[in-house]
Amino acid sequence: MSSESPATGTKPSAIVWLRNDLRLHDHEPLQAALANHSHVLLLYCVDPRQFSTLGIGAPKTGPFRARFLIESLEALRSAARALGGELAVRVGEPETVVPGIAREINATHVFFHHEPAPEERRIEDALRVQLQDAGVKTRFFFGHTMVHHDDLPYPVAALPDTFSKYRNAVERRVSVREPLPAPATMRSPQITAGDIPTLEALGLTEPADDARTLLRFRGGESEGLERLRAWMWDADQLKTYKTTRNGLLATNDSSKFSPWLALGCLSPRTVYAEVQRYERTRVRNEDTGWLVFELHWRDYFRWVAAKWGARLYSAGGLQGLRYPWRDLRDHDARMDFNRWVEGTTGFPLVDAAMRELAATGYTSNRARQNVASFLTRVLGIDWRAGAQWFESMLVDYDVGSNWGNWAYVAGVGNDARGFRFFNVHKQAGNYDADGAFARHWLPELARIPGGRIYRPDQLSTDEQKRYGVVLGDNYPEPMVNMFAAADASAVRYDRAVAATPQS
Ligand SMILES: Cc1cc2nc3c(=O)[nH]c(=O)nc-3n(C[C@H](O)[C@H](O)[C@H](O)COP(=O)(O)OP(=O)(O)OC[C@H]3O[C@@H](n4cnc5c(N)ncnc54)[C@H](O)[C@@H]3O)c2cc1C
Q: In this structure, are residues 108 and 40 in contact, taking their beta carbons and an 8 Å threshold?
């Protein structure tokens, strides 16, 4: 390949192939490309495989995340153009698109961030082969985590099987790197920018904006940085984060950074640097440190995905547990799964959370834990069906965090410590004693006073009349006896543990 680029007429060009890293700040591949190339093209491939249908029949990328992606691409294109550069967007598989564009602009190098999950790794491998054959060099970087891959105290293959061991080692021995600044200027080769596809073109329909939505997540780097500023500095929420983070209903109970972190609009190292600055200039306490603790969880699940590969997505999970999950091919299991999805289980905490998820693409961590436990530990349904539903619906879907958390709650992930399940009645009392969350999402129960809203099954016929609830009519009876079902699950779980060879 010539070192002169016909597209630029000067030095050779480079491509920065973007994936879950839709930002300009703290972007090592971009910095590396700019250091050695006069012309750098940002390139994003809208991969049709990301818009296929999952085994449960739902779109792999549902409308909330697709809309967030489109907004993020639009924002990044504007930001790149403001610096003098360009973001090219193509619909197609990266293994085909990237080499084609490399030829078109006579690029000598392709820079990108590595992704840990098997599907993404296969794409990377295929792309590398294609580019090598075309004489184009590739360089990849690690950029999705707070702790840099190369700073880990051990190889990923030796990752400890408990989070606490991981965190202790990392906190003692690793410093988080400073985030890199965004470039001040860039130049891109002349090329057709390409349209950013619409939701309709991706086979999806615009989600209706539900008036009950707490926070409408808008994609884009500046939106992510603005949320960081508004939550941490304006609302001054970091100093009470640990205390409020389990809240179910308030916009600022937790940071809500997750969608921007998942798509890489926001770098976790930037969040970390802001926590440090906050601790220096405002206050340092247990709450401020807890945000970093949660970001360690996020990192950890990413290393888990890298270490375990395909095993993370198997029925037995990391434990290889031989648990007899109810399969969605079974009619009754499918019906029960559908009730969970629709939020008609008769358990208000579960129903409110599932309806929030369906209406907004988001629900809080506490709610996620409860609904995941209910599906797997009470209904005994294959945890992967739940993980797929989340994959489809979540605006903040992140492969490691989703599958790692699901496996953890289902008892087949890291740190399995015997059978545990969330008593959703108790959880509702602990985290929403006055019933505001249920009242927000379940209008048919809204007149039931206080925390009693979580036990419509305990209302007398007179009370049902008074509060406008008719169990089995406008709100379902509990679909299962929770304690009996959980006891039966526990027996099956213990049997499965005994039958599973220790690896
Ligand atoms: C079954 C289940 C599925 C989940 N799926 C996802 C997912 O696909 N994507 C995702 O980002 N998070 C997932 N989580 C983790 C967590 O629920 C969300 O990160 C959190 O609710 C996002 O809200 P927030 O940004 O306000 O969180 P905050 O409480 O403000 O936390 C700050 C950040 O720390 C990280 N974080 C917090 N809790 C966790 C956790 N348990 N695991 C990993 N990272 C965490 C997130 O990046 C989050 O944005 C899942 C949790 C469960 C129980």
A: no
